[in-house]
Amino acid sequence: MYNYIKIEQKQAVTVLTISAPKSLNALNSIVLGELDDALTHLTEETRVLIITGDGEKSFVAGADISEMAGLNEAEGFDFGKKGADVFRRIETLPIPVIAAVNGFALGGGCELAMACDIRICSSNAKFGQPEVGLGIIPGFSGTYRLAKLVGMGMAKQLIYTGKPIKADEALRIGLVNAVYEQPELMDAAMQMAENICANAPLAVAYAKQCINEEYDLNADDAVAFENKMFGRCFATEDQKNGMKAFLNKEKPQFCGK
Ligand code: CO8
User: Fold this and answer.
1) What is the value of pTM for the model shown?
2) Does 7 score more than 90 pLDDT?
3) Domain of 100: which CATH number?
4) Same domain, residue pair 112 and 232
5) Do residues 57 and 103 lie in contact, with contact meaning Cβ atoms separated by under 8 Å?
């Protein structure tokens, strides 16, 4: 149904694979449109989304340079906004999103991975924001998210030099959570997704909302926001189910309500 995206449903886990092999899975506006549409049409049963790239060489090698080359200022703004809006949708989806980075994550590819909740990668992965070498800056919110994830000093180094880093360095600076050999990457992503799926869906969604929203609040507002969401958990059936199961020494059965 899509030209550049493959969707696989594995019980409650949806695996979305970006597949534009001729350009190492670069993001042109059609890929971005398909990504947006795929997010709209995630199945109701989806509890975790995994995003990866086709093949063993590249996750996403950036925004499509051949499409960007001839843009004027207004068109550059529009293209940047199109990607930024889709990535913000990923960041605010009510379910966790895992980036399984299977190779190059450059420019828009690194930005896509950073819009996900959790990043794991293969040992051949390379991360970088090479935009200034093309006369542009990161345009899919990379200046914002990279500094948030690895701190201003390292973000500025990566963005000003444009030099990519290998998987072990990405792990060291906290850009990824774990590194696996390529053949093990998707199994590791699935295992993590299944661990998440075993928990109460609304609690996971509330936790994601808290972590995302509190980051930009002052301490008092952040603490109050968590307090409100914590209280809200007690209005769910799954809080009753989870605690009753614990007290009865049983495995909890969550219903997502
Ligand atoms: N866009 C378009 N085509 C690409 C891209 C890309 N980002 N990356 C690779 N390709 C194409 C190559 O042109 C090549 O095509 P062809 O076979 O027709 O010559 C094919 O993919 C294979 O690539 P290579 O032959 O170059 O493969 P190598 O293994 O030698 O090198 C690299 C792999 C290192 C990944 C290399 O391809 C490369 O440097 N790619 C560009 C990486 C890059 O600079 N990415 C950042 C792009 S800018 C960006 O993402 C900005 C995001 C915000 C945009 C906001 C818009 C306003």
Assistant:
1) 0.97
2) yes
3) 3.90.226.10
4) no
5) yes
